[in-house]
Write a structure and sequence with these properties.
The structure is a homodimer of 117-residue chains. Chain A has 117 residues and is an alpha+beta fold. Chain A has one domain: Orthogonal Bundle (Arc Repressor Mutant, subunit A). Helices cover 56% and strands 20% of the residues of chain A. The first copy, chain A, is built from four helices and four strands, in the order E-E-H-H-H-E-E-H. A two-stranded antiparallel ribbon of chain A has the order 1-2. In chain A, helix 1 packs across helix 3, helix 1 crosses helix 4 and helix 2 crosses helix 3. The radius of gyration of chain A is 17 Å and the shape is elongated. Chains A and B meet through strand 1 and helix 4 of A and strand 1 and helix 4 of B. Chain A binds a DNA duplex (30 and 30 nucleotides) through helix 2, helix 3, strand 3 and strand 4.
Chain lengths: 117, 117
DNA sequence: ACTGGTTATGCACAACTCGACATATCGGCT
DNA sequence: AGCCGATATGTCGAGTTGTGCATAACCAGT
């Protein structure tokens, strides 16, 4: 029997909308924080700007929170920066995710590993 | 801010193959145990026989374990029953899943709920 | 004004998944 | 030998999701 590993895709949903927030959007926020730009963030994550833009809006609409402040035009073209709410979400989700990852690892050791002789 | 809930898609992967075992295949095994037939199992889960059959084979191939014993022909056409290994997997995965679900709930309360004023 | 880089947004296209359909095969019973 | 219902498997089409391309709007600086 081969060696396995447990994976877990985590996300939050509201009553009406699936995938309000999850790993992808979390990484996106982090990348925005790091780069100061939605375009640069999408590049660094190797996803299309189109998707990054859509994801960000979806999260904001669904959560009804301003996670970022976007600015068009100007000498540098524009920028996107996190709001304090956005930073809180990164922080909270990061811990949430870490808690779950840890639990998954433990549960795997406890429940599954025994089956793999 | 709206009420959210945390979701978690769990699965096991081997080095080469994604999705070796997960909720879908777990439910499939349970349904097979309950019905004694792959066809009936697929019906009760409202998935196509085609998919059920493919999933089952994929799991067995990837785990390199006989989870079920299939029998073609005969007066009742055929049947599919779990092996003792199959039963062990149901049991183990069920507990694994429950552990993780519980942890997700706790982590959600601890890390996320505070953000939702 | 003009420029350059970014945000904003629609649309057509490719990849992937899954379901529906079509057949073929199998093997106790009658 | 023929039947019947389940397993076995390929194939085509629909729905979903993300990418790529095109284009517009924006605006501090030169």
């Amino acid at each position: 029997m081969k060696r396995l590993n447990a994976k877990c895709k985590l996300w939050l949903s509201s009553k009406n909308i699936e995938g309000v927030f999850g790993d992808g959007k979390w990484r996106l926020l982090e990348a925005i924080d790091r780069t100061g730009s939605l375009r640069e963030a999408s590049k660094s994550l190797q996803i299309s700007y189109r998707k990054a833009w859509g994801d960000l809006n979806k999260a904001q609409d669904a959560l009804n929170v301003a996670l970022v402040e976007k600015q068009r035009g100007g000498n540098i073209g524009g920028k996107t920066t996190l709001t304090s709410e956005g930073k809180k979400w990164i922080e909270a989700y990061s811990k949430f995710r870490a808690d779950v990852e840890k639990a998954v690892g433990k549960a795997y050791e406890k429940r599954i590993e025994g089956l793999l002789k």
